Amino acid sequence: MALIECRNLTHVYLKGTPLEAVALQDVTLSVEAGEFVGIIGPTGSGKSTLIQHFNALLRPTGGALRVAGIDLANPRADVKNLRQQVGLVFQYPEHQLFEETVYDDVAYGPRNLRLNENEVGERVAESLALVGVDPNRFGRRSPFSLSGGEMRRVAIAGVLAMRPRVLVLDEPAAGLDPKGKEEILGQIRALHQAQGLTVLLVTHSMDEAAQLVRRLVVLARGRVVMDGPVREIFRRAQDLAVLGLGIPAIAELMLRLRGSGLPVSPDTLTVDEARVAIREALRWN
Amino acid sequence: MELTRYVTIGQYIPRESPVHRLDPRSKIAAVTVLTVAVFVVRDFSGYGLLTLFLLGVVLASQIPLGYLLRGLRPVLFLLLMTLVLNVFFSGIQGGTVLFQLGPVVATREAVLRAVFIGYRLVALVLVTSLLTFTTSPVQLTDGIERILRPFRRLGVPAHELAMMMTIALRFIPTLLEETEKIMKAQMARGAEFEHGNILRRARALVPVLVPLFVSAFRRADELALAMEARCYRGGEHRTRMKELRLAPRDAVALALTIAASFVFTIPYPTWQALLR
Q1: Which one in A19, A44, B20, B144 has a CA-CA gap of 20 to 30 Å to B243?
Q2: DSSP assignment of B105-151, as one string?
């Protein structure tokens, strides 16, 4: 049984009003425990709507959805239990910070779980450490005095403090400087590898997807239009272009090199792979 | 969790209808006339005719009736209170007793009056929602600015008031969306807004209100900066892209509304005499 299982999932906003809008249509998708899945798609393709279903912030208006064995088409599903298992990090999560200190803000989730203060403290220290924020140095500070990148990491720690099995992130690197981006993404990769978290990552950046995920789901106009290993998907540059999506910079470079007659391998997504591929093509081995 | 689903009041529904095409000033004037009529009407006959008139306008405006009625939901509580208070504390002495429980008495007269006043509230909400459903916020404030313009000599900052209204209206959906987003983010961290007593529910809102205020101030700052960067200096020497122009249809619509309003205020006995 897959961890996340949607069958013909459909969501219509403001159903029954003149403003109703179909956001998701017949989405069929399953994610196994331990996967690292990227979700890409043009603006308005339904990415945010889809991920909000995974922890029951939105309910399907049609179709079936099971997450961690909980049937979410059932209105009496155990939502509380689910929200603890599936951590959702929204876009610009630093906008949700509210407490006087970093410690209290991260402690908000565990306290909502009615844990005792010892365990809360343990979880705060652990999750701050996971995102590379020193609990002793930052714990007593106001979250509003931190830099943008630090605020974001504290906000992500706030979700990690729930100790979820699945982490869903909506554009976690958006609006950060290159260094901040790299740090955040590196930490997410580490969470996946070291903690064994199942990670779903919504992104606009093909480079991010190429670096991080193994499987890619492409959404367009509320439907899943492609779903498969990253390398296979990025080989379909033309289909992606039709949807208004690009491919990673390295893949683009390889494509152009092939176009100008250098027979590099098409299966190249990272700088290291590109170095090997170009050398091979030039027979420099 | 769709806040916009429950707040239909003040929402604009774009359609290509004759009501939508009217000049906002004539619509504001018509709503004012109708509002006065709602208070002047003394008989159910008047409200019957008013209802027919409103139904006609709704049909012409292409706004689904059900959606318009949904706008009543926020005032439902007020409506119930009005009904209850008027039935039991009307102060009407005597009359036919319909229902009695100890000192609590409901008379036929009191019930009729309660329904009458309750319907007055409904009519007011319907009339004003028709205005906001068929007039975009920008048009609405443009109309108000033009109406206030003659009072500028008296020191009324017409443009500034209109600009404040425009900005306020513009940010209602944004802030609703923001509230929804923050609530969801906190729910993802185990927050519960629908459980517990009033005190606990109020406390549960702190994690929503703090970020909401922070973001409102940030937005205000950014907007002010953006306006200044484009040399906004208030109403002096401002021209507009869309000038409001009254058309013949505005005169017709307004004349019809005024005439109809007079008809609504004709008391029932007069109708009886006229129709005899």
Answers
A1: A19
A2: EEEHHHHHHHHHHHHHHHHHHHHHHHHHHHS-HHHHHHHHHHHHGGG
- C-beta atoms of A162 and B189 within 8 A: yes
Contact flag A14-B215 (C-beta cutoff 8 Å): no
Pick the most confident of A36-40, B38-42, B103-107: A36-40
pTM score: 0.74
Element (H or E) spanning B104, and its range? strand B104-107
Domain of residue B135: give its range. 3-247+259-267
Determine whether the interchain pair A112/B190 forms a contact, defined as Cβ–Cβ distance below 8 Å.
yes
ipTM value of the model? Answer: 0.87
Optimal mutation site among A95, A142, A166, interface B, most CBs of chain B within 10 A: A95
Nearest CA in chain B to A52: B184
B272 within some domain: no
On the question of pLDDT at B9 being above 70, the answer is no
Bridge partners (DSSP) of residue A207 are none
Query: Does the pLDDT of residue B1 top 70, yes or no?
Result: no
* Cα angle A46, A232, A35; round to 5: 65
In this structure, what DSSP letter does residue A171 have? S
Instruction: Locate the DSSP E strands across A146-206.
Output: 166-170, 198-202
A113 has a chain B CB within 8 A of its CB: yes
Please tell me the distance in Å from A79's CA to the nearest CA on chain B: 10
Residues B191, A112: C-beta atoms closer than 8 Å: yes
Is residue B276 one of the residues assigned to a domain? no
Q: What is the pLDDT confidence band of residue A284, given thresholds at 50, 70 and 90?
A: low
How close A93 comes to chain B (CA, Å)? Answer: 8
Total count of domains within chain B: 1
Q: CA of B71, closest CA in chain A: separation in Å?
A: 12
Put simply, whether A63 touches B (Cβ < 8 Å) is no
Contact of B212 with B178, CB cutoff 8 Å: yes
Q: Does A142 touch chain B (CB under 8 A)?
A: no
Higher pLDDT, A285 or B122: B122
Return d(Cα A84, Cα A88) in angstroms, integer: 10
Is B123 inside a domain boundary? yes
pLDDT band at B99 (very low <50, low <70, confident <90, very high): confident
Q: What's the rounded Cα separation, in Å, for the pair B50 and B66? A: 18
Tell me the C-alpha distance between A143 and A151, whole Å: 6
